[in-house]
Write a structure and sequence with these properties.
Elements (H helix, E strand, L loop, with lengths): L7 H12 L12 E7 L4 E10 L2 E10 L2 H14 L4 H15 L3 H4 L17 H22 L11
Antiparallel strand pairs: 1-2, 2-3
The structure holds zinc ion (ZN).
C-alpha cells in the first residue's frame, strides 16, 4: 500500500492553524448558524456568519476535532471576512473539487493557504474532515439566500 505524506511545509501550516485557530469565538450578531458533525472522526463545528446584503460581514466558528477539520475551518474563515456571497460559494465549490481530486482546482491560486489541504484528498477517510467547514458554509449560504447564483447552482 502506498502511504502518501503531506509535505512538511503544508503540515506545519495545518498544525499552526490547529494550534492558533483564527476566528474561533462566538459571533454575537450572527444572522445564520450551521452545525456540522463528522461522527466518523468526532469532528464538530458550528459556523456562524453575519451576512449583510450581498456579502459576509463577519465569520466565526466554534468547534472541536482533528487538526484537519479545525485547520480547514480556520483557514476558511480568514477568507470569508467581507467576502461576496457568490465568491464564497465559488470558493466552497472549488475547494470541494480539489478534495475530490480535481487537479485543476488543486492548482488554483485563488484557494491560497487552503491548498495546503490538497494532500488530504489522498486519504479518503479524512476528506470529510477537510470538507466539514465548507459543507457548513454551503448550507449557510443556501439557508440565508437560497441557491447562490440562481438557477445555475446545481450544474455539477
Ligand atoms: Zn477529522
Amino acid at each position: 500500500m502506498e502511504s502518501p505524506q503531506l509535505s512538511s511545509l503544508y503540515q506545519q501550516l495545518i498544525l499552526e492553524h490547529y494550534r492558533n485557530p483564527r476566528n474561533k469565538a462566538e459571533l454575537d450578531e450572527k444572522t445564520v448558524e450551521i452545525h456540522m458533525a463528522n461522527p466518523v472522526c468526532g469532528d464538530e463545528i458550528r459556523l456562524q456568519l453575519r451576512i449583510e446584503g450581498d456579502h459576509i460581514a463577519e465569520a466565526k466558528f466554534v468547534g472541536s476535532g482533528c487538526s484537519i477539520s479545525q485547520a480547514a475551518v480556520s483557514m476558511m474563515t480568514t477568507r470569508l471576512q467581507g467576502a461576496n456571497l457568490v465568491e464564497a460559494d465559488a470558493l466552497a465549490k472549488r475547494f470541494t473539487e480539489m478534495m475530490h481530486g480535481d487537479e485543476t482546482a488543486a492548482k488554483d491560486k485563488t484557494l491560497g493557504d487552503l491548498r495546503a489541504l490538497e494532500g488530504v484528498s489522498k486519504f479518503p477517510v479524512r476528506i470529510k474532515c477537510a470538507l466539514l467547514g465548507f459543507d457548513a458554509l454551503q448550507e449557510a449560504l443556501k439557508k440565508e439566500v437560497g441557491e447562490v447564483g440562481g438557477v445555475g447552482g446545481d450544474l455539477n
